[in-house]
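Dear U.,

For the methods section draft, I wanted the exact inputs and outputs in one place so we can describe them consistently. I've listed the two proteins in the order they'll appear in the manuscript figures. Please don't edit the token lines directly; just add comments below if something needs changing.

First protein:
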Amino acid sequence: MANGKTSSLLGAACAMGALTAGSSAQRPAHLGHFGRCQGPAFQITDDILGKFGDPRKTDKPIGSNVSQCKKTYPVLAGPRVVGPPRESGTGRTLLTADAVTEHQIARVGTLVECAGGKHLAE
């Protein structure tokens, strides 16, 4: 998803900036590639802030991606994101639930951090 949306947007913005500035023929392509490469880094950083950031600074409620059941990089990156075997059902349920409570959102954050998802994303 990050490549399809965020990378495309950043790549187009960089390429159009070069075109608008009247750059040489190859520069828009090179800058477009540069922007597309920045997309995943931007999206992963945004995912970290959405799960662990300070809502007063980010203007995002903590866990908004979890409440929408989005499978963000920190959630997917942890090698054991569903928790130890005794909790394996908990993680799977939270990732596929129709409605998620604030307690469950906090639980996902704990599971993601314990599984190493936050560390890997950073």
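Second protein (the one for the lower panel):
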Amino acid sequence: MKAGKGMGSGARLLALGACLLFLMGWLSPFGLQPPPGVKRAAAAADPYEPNDSLGEAYGPLDRVGYYQAYIQSEGDHDFFFVDVPENCKMLRVTLTGIPESCNYELYIYDSSGEEIEASRNDSNQDESIEMQSPAEGRYYVEVWPFEGYSDADAYTLEIRRSDLVLDHVWEKVGPSGMSPPLTDYTVGQVEAASASVAYAVLDPQFAGNGKVLKTTDYGDSWQVIGLSHPNP
């Protein structure tokens, strides 16, 4: 009996089915598939990309905010921008959560792209830049990978901007939750740190004895902090 040149119809169907399963990934060669029940690791999505240049910088960043992002590949640089008003007292940018075996550096540029501040600590130590009374304008922040990258471990960029509040008028109206109530004190000076935070120095010649009070809720409540000023 001579062997036929082709396969029988049943064998052809089995071969076709195996090819389809291979293409679907069910019969991939050993080692190319994760164990059952384990999903393939996928690169995390960076919500601020593309931001690899000054022209693509993400912003404006909030006055106070936290941003988690990734240096996903070699050559990836992350740019952000923050707009500073005329009455800004302080701008602080902090970079934390740098992945192990990575070294990210922090830079700040002015509106023309000129570098004005930098933080370059070793290995994956935190980086921080603080500017006192920065000039009004736009500032660019760069997270630059001096060494390494990770598309699975995010870093955290923190922005803190303290502005003098010039469009709010603080007046002595209470509340009565203190003993004696705030209305019984003579306030020597009030300094607003933001729209909701202010400090009051009480006149040392009267019931306040130079105590310093702080509010964080627009003046609805005040707490005596551990400071006193004998001559405010």
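Candidate sentences for the figure legend, describing the second protein: The chain is about 5% helix and 40% strand. The radius of gyration is 30 Å.

Thanks,
Y.
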